[in-house]
Amino acid sequence: MKRTTIVTTRVDQEFNKYFLGDVLTTPWRDEFVVTSVQVIHSVKKHPNYTSLTQKQIQLLSKYNKMEVIRMKKVKKDEIKQIAE
User: How do the domains of the chain map onto residue ranges?
Assistant: First the structure.
């Protein structure tokens, strides 16, 4: 199954590293643009809290500041349009 959107949570050294409009390339050369960066201060405020596993909740509970980042897969010809 190919993913066209990704949601990831970043903490610690990865916090404040990604910004709206950033284009990221995966190791398999797919490219994603950051479409949303949401800062949260509690795992209970995570937009996907009910989908997180207990292990994920336990891990994220150690942090008082995290970012939920949404990305959308883009085609190479769309990247130039995003940058403009």
Answer: 5-83
Structure token digits, residue 82: 């995003």
Collect all residues with Cβ–Cβ distance below 8 Å to 70 and sequence separation of at least 6: 5, 6, 7, 34, 35, 36, 37, 38
Each residue's pLDDT tens digit in the chain (84 positions)?
A: 567 899 999 999 899 999 999 999 989 888 999 999 999 999 999 999 999 999 999 999 999 999 999 999 998 776 655 555
Tokens of 33: 């643009």
5-83 classified as CATH 2.30.130.30: yes
